[in-house]
Amino acid sequence: MMLMWYCISNRLTEKSDVFSFGVVLLEIITCRSAITRTSENEKTHLSQWVNSLISQSDVRKIVDQRLQGDVDTNSVWKAVEIAMACLSATANRRPTMNVVVMELNECLATEMARIKSATTGFDSKDSIDHMISLNLGTELNPRAR
Q1: Does residue 130 sit within a domain?
Q2: What are the tens digits of pLDDT across the range 111-136?
Q3: Known InterPro entries for this protein (predicted)?
Q4: CA–CA separation, 24 vs 77, rounded Å?
Q5: Distances from the Cα of 86 to the Cαs of 23, 120, 129, in angstroms?
Q6: Does residue 138 sit within a domain?
Q7: CB 32 within 8 A of CB 45
Q8: How many domains, the chain?
Q9: Is residue 105 within 8 Å of 133, Cβ to Cβ?
């Protein structure tokens, strides 16, 4: 998908970087390669596989099997939604990296709060508010080129 657009335009942009990041994010979430050979002459892009599972509404089939039961389902759904938004076929429909970082920080805050409440017994709402107040995005924002 992305390669075809690049071959035609011979240009890389911020939005093409966002697309590439979406692919990498899906690879991390699923622990699968971007392209999978389904038969001798046929290959499937990871986004196609994820799309087919999204329609079944079961994120447990999407997430890396080694993480089963060890992550917050809502955080995983949010991360998958972010990745899929990055993979929009229309470049101007893809989020900016600043938006991606903000949304991933929300996922991180939710997950950190879940872990903290599981280990300390604190109310998860209080933990989420505390984690968000830490301003996690400051040192994680992408640097300008």
Answers
A1: no
A2: 888 888 888 765 545 545 554 544 54
A3: Kinase-like_dom_sf, Ser-Thr/Tyr_kinase_cat_dom
A4: 16
A5: 8, 35, 27
A6: no
A7: no
A8: 1
A9: no
The separation between CA 131 and the C-alpha centre of its own chain, rounded to angstroms, equals: 20
Written as six digits, the tokens of 2 are 């992305």
Q: Is the residue at 128 inside a domain?
A: no
Pairwise CA distance, residues 79 & 63, whole Å: 10
- Residue 140 pLDDT > 60: no
Domain limits for position 36: 11-117
Write the CATH number for 103.
1.10.510.10
Distance from chain centroid for Cα 13: 20
Residue 95's φ and ψ, nearest 5 degrees, are -70, 165
Q: Does an H or E element contain 11, and which?
A: none
Give me the pLDDT at residue 145, please: 46
User: CB of 18 within 8 A of CB of 72?
Assistant: no
